[in-house]
Amino acid sequence: MLIETMSHHGVDSFPALLAATIQGSTETTFYVLAVYFGSVGITRARHAVGCALLSDLAGVLAAIAICYWFFG
């Protein structure tokens, strides 16, 4: 979606900067849950998934606010 946004609107447009900021703030959630939890043998990650998704929501909201503040 990031590449499509950048190719459609241009790399220096506000939607592209916002999409890049959101992706940078939330891209590691499922990587951490799959790789790190799997490597140490954690099988019940119910509360970690909820906290990770809540932090993703906070990251998206913060990215939107910061992009409007800087690039607005």
Brief write-up:
By secondary structure, the chain is mostly helical. The chain has four helices and no strands. The protein has one domain (2-71).
Describe this structure in words.
- With 72 residues, the chain is mainly alpha-helical.
- Helices cover 82% and strands 0% of the residues.
- The protein has one domain.
- It has helices at residues 2-9, 14-26, 29-40, 46-71.
- The radius of gyration is 15 Å and the shape is elongated.
Keywords summarizing the entry:
0% strand; 72 residues; mainly alpha
- Give the strand content: under 5%
N- to C-terminal distance = 21 Å
Overall body shape:
elongated
Q: Which percent range fits the helix content?
A: over 70%
Largest sheet, in brief, is: none
Distinct helical segment count = 4
Low-confidence stretches: none
How many β-strand stretches? Answer: 0
SSE-based structural type: mainly alpha
Order of helices and strands: HHHH
Mean pLDDT: 87
**Cα Rg:** 15 Å
What count of structural domains?
A: 1
